[in-house]
Amino acid sequence: MRKIIAFMHISLDGFVAGPNGEMNWIKVDEEIFDYVGKRISKGDTALYGRVTYEMMESYWPTAGDKPDASKHDIEHAKWYNKAHKVVLSKTMNDIDLTNTKVISDNLANEIHKLKQSSNGESADILVFGSPTATHALIQENLLDGYWLFVNPVILGQGIPLFTGIKDKVNLKLLTTHRFACGVTELNYIVERQ
Predict the structure, then answer these.
(1) 3-state DSSP: the chain helix, strand, coil percent, rounded to 5?
(2) CA gap 150, 173 in Å, rounded
(3) Is residue 142 a contact partner of residue 134, using CB atoms and an 8 Å limit?
(4) Spans of the chain, pLDDT less than 50
(5) Residue closest to 23 by CA, chosen among 9, 35, 34, 37
(6) DSSP-derived secondary structure for 59-72
(7) DSSP readout, 127-181?
(8) Spatial CB neighbours of 98, under 8 Å, sequence gap ≥ 6
């Protein structure tokens, strides 16, 4: 069965965005892009909340076609355009876009079906950013892991990653990686009983 993994940049004090959704504090560079690119290239499905999906759709479909496109833009645009996209949204109607499915209700049942599906592989399904969608998955105990990029900053306020947690969740640390820019990757899997 495939696993649902939250892929987030996070501040040292646990925020994934500033109070108004600011993400200008996130450090990214070629080293991080290459590292992330290797992992996501093994998967074929991305999960987003509506806001993140709309942001991604406004940029990635044509990002690799621009004359000044970076190596990262070209590679990620190719992956994005081929990937199956799943959007958690109560406000989007069931849209008919290539490779895009909207889940608006029966979250637990639909996520279970998604985990069971595969195209001959069993690669992780990454939740890209999307704090509201991630909160819904956490509250329903549907996340199987966290792939966190801890940025060397304390925001003091903002949108927290962990909110509304009712029960303890045990995690197992799989890997860590320190980047030259000061970001530290922490890769956890949820330990189920």
Answers:
(1) 30, 25, 45
(2) 14
(3) no
(4) none
(5) 9
(6) HHHHHTTSTT--HH
(7) EES-HHHHHHHHHTT---EEEEEEES---SSSEESS-S--S---EEEEEEEE-TT
(8) none
Rounded to a whole number of angstroms, the CA Rg of the chain reads: 16
- B/e letters for 66-83, b = 16+ CB within 10 Å, e = fewer, are eeeeeebbebbbebbeeb
| Cα gap 119→44, rounded to integer Å | 9
Residues in the chain: 193
pTM: 0.90
What are the tens digits of pLDDT across the range 116-143?
Answer: 886 555 588 999 989 999 999 999 899 9
Amino acid making up residue 26:
I
At 121 the pLDDT is 59
SS3 call for 119:
coil
- Contact present, 130 and 88 (Cβ < 8 Å): yes
